[in-house]
Amino acid sequence: MGRGETRAPRWPAPDGPEALVRPRSRPLVRMARLVLGGVLLLIGIVLGISPVPVGFLIVPVALYILASESRTARSGILWVRRHLPPLDKALRRVAHRLPEGVTHMIRDTDPHRDRSAAKDKPQPEAA
Q: Taking Cα atoms as reference points, which of 40, 112, 28 lies closest to residue 73?
C-alpha cells in the first residue's frame, strides 16, 4: 500500500444477520480459529472461578473468535445470553474494557437489542 492509502477495516462488520460472520476462509485456518476459540473459552471458564477472575476478560475474546467464524456459535451465544442473565450482565459490564471488535460482538449478540428498529429511520412529526 502506498503512502496515504488506508485499508478497509475488517471490523466492525456491517449490521444485519450476517454482520458477525467473516467471509469463508481456508478450511484449515477456519478450523484453527475455531479450536483456538474453544480452548480460550475453556481456559476463561476455568480462570473465571479462580480467586483472581481474569477469565471474565478471556471469555469475551474467545466468544468473539468463535462468533466471527461460525453462525452456529453466534446463535449459541445469543441463546446462552438469553438464558443466563448473569453471563449477559458480565459481558455488558466488561465490554468497554475490551478491544473494539469484541465490543461489537457483545453488542451484536445482545438479546435485549432491538433488531427491528432501523438506525436512520426518521421519527414521525407531532401534529
A: 40
Label residues 41-65 b or e (16+ Cβ within 10 Å = b): beebeebbeeeeeebbebbbbbbbb
Does the pTM surpass 0.90? The reply is no
Distance CA 32, CA 23 (A): 15
The tally of domains found in the chain comes to: 1
For 29-88, write each residue's pLDDT tens digit.
Answer: 889 999 999 999 999 989 888 888 788 788 888 988 998 888 888 888 889 899 999 888
| Domain-located, residue 60 | yes
Is 95 among the domain residues?
A: yes
